[in-house]
Automatic annotation (TrEMBL), chain B:
Annotated Lipid/polyisoprenoid-binding YceI-like domain residues: 32-192
Name by which UniProt lists this protein: Polyisoprenoid-binding protein
Keyword ATP-binding: no
Signal peptide: 1-29
Taxonomic source organism: Thalassospira profundimaris
Keywords: Signal
Keyword Signal: yes
InterPro entries: Lipid/polyisoprenoid-bd_YceI, TTHA0802/YceI-like_sf
Lineage: Bacteria, Pseudomonadati, Pseudomonadota, Alphaproteobacteria, Rhodospirillales
Length: 197, 193
């Protein structure tokens, strides 16, 4: 499997980023909700610490991913209708936006609360804004709303992938799977070519 | 004989008065200083989840008698109002004063009382003092720099203490993995005489 993507398939770097970030999305989201329900105590602080560290990891990977995406070709969308391709485009843009905005609002929230972010205890991030209770409340609301925006975007993303796989029966989902590209037979070349034309 | 007695007694009496004055002199010789509240601060830096945060106790009062040439007669007593803590986070501030931490309901004031001063270098001193937080008193050594310009003086210094030495952080909070044990207290005191 090539490191870089080409016009029909994803390279191993993009696939790795995709799946690692998918796992991180689920982890950070679950930890975020879990810690929110914990009473103030050691456990809550420990989970907050993990949430922040994982969130910053998402931010770093998101930056790498966007830079990498700008550098390599992107496989053509397989949607049959232009409206589908437009929806896919908007959905992906939305996902890129939240993978930056979500950690950033969290980081700013921590700064506004005078609660600096340590990443796995390895290093501490600089404060983005000065401590400000009012700003903290605003950012917390933004972080909360974004969490639901992520739910909508991710569910839409998964539903679209399943629709491509089970209804359209195209390679959209399969070409993002780790093994695809190893066996070219997995992706019906003729089908792919037709949809790209 | 009687004449001799009187004449010999006089210098003795004079010497006695002089020595009594000399004994009481040190307490009066050190200059009294008034703290300028607006320019003075008792701040601290702690760690939470591995990252440093800072705060300050905004209300405190200090009685300062200090003269560089009379360290033995110098003394400082500082009373700190625990409830005046400000870490720019209302949730954290309410935690700090709560029973598990400073328990300001029971022990509203922290106290710093010097026992001795020594000069380390010109303009640089060390104060050995009893620091009382909650119901625990421990000796701490505060190194500080002092600049005196006529009737104005500024002292800056810092000392790192362990919060658990003073029982700050009870129960689960005695664990120092998430809220660090070391707390650095930094003082900036501007005073005039």
């Amino acid at each position: 499997m090539a490191l870089r993507s080409d016009n029909t398939g994803f390279g191993s770097i993009t696939k790795s980023l995709h799946w690692v970030m998918a796992a991180l999305f689920i982890s950070v989201f679950s930890v975020g909700w879990y810690m929110d329900f914990l009473p103030l105590g050691m456990a809550k602080l420990e989970w907050m610490s993990r949430h922040k560290s994982l969130g910053v990891t998402v931010l770093m990977l998101a930056v790498l991913r966007i830079l990498w995406r700008l550098y390599e070709p992107t496989p053509a969308a397989l949607g049959k209708h232009s409206i589908e391709r437009l929806a896919a485009k908007l959905g992906h843009l939305g996902l890129y936006a939240v993978m930056i905005a979500m950690p950033l609002t969290g980081w700013m929230m921590s700064s506004a609360a005078n609660f600096p972010v340590s990443v796995f205890g390895l290093f501490t991030l600089p404060n983005l804004v000065a401590p400000d209770q009012g700003l903290f409340e605003t950012l917390r609301t933004a972080h909360f709303i974004l969490s639901w925006a992520i739910v909508v975007l991710v569910l839409g993303h998964v539903a679209a992938a399943l629709k491509h796989h089970f209804i359209d029966r195209d390679a959209t989902l399969r070409r993002m799977l780790p093994a695809s590209g190893d066996q070219d037979g997995d992706i019906p070349a003729s089908n792919t070519a037709k949809e790209n034309s | 004989m009687s004449m001799n007695f009187k004449t010999s007694l006089r210098p003795l009496a004079a010497g006695l008065v002089a020595s009594m004055l000399a004994l009481s002199a040190p307490a009066q010789a050190a200059d009294q200083w008034n703290v300028e509240d607006g320019d003075s601060a008792i701040a601290f830096t702690g760690t939470q989840l591995g990252a440093e945060f800072n705060g300050a106790f905004e209300d405190f009062s200090a009685s300062i008698a200090f003269s560089p040439d009379d360290l033995a007669g110098s003394s400082v007593e500082v009373l700190i109002d625990i409830a005046s803590v400000n870490t720019q986070n209302a949730d954290r501030d309410s935690q700090i004063v709560s029973a598990d931490w400073f328990n300001a309901g029971e022990w509203p004031t922290a106290k710093f009382v010097t026992k001795s001063f020594s000069e380390v270098a010109p303009g640089s001193y060390q104060a050995v003092a009893d620091l009382t937080i909650r119901d625990v008193t421990k000796e701490v050594t505060l190194p500080f720099d002092l600049v005196i310009n006529g009737t104005e003086a500024e002292a800056t210094g810092s000392v790192t203490i362990k919060r658990t030495d003073f029982g700050v952080g009870q129960g689960q909070w005695a664990d120092v993995s998430q809220v660090g044990d070391d707390v650095t207290i930094s003082i900036t005191i501007k005073a005039s005489k």
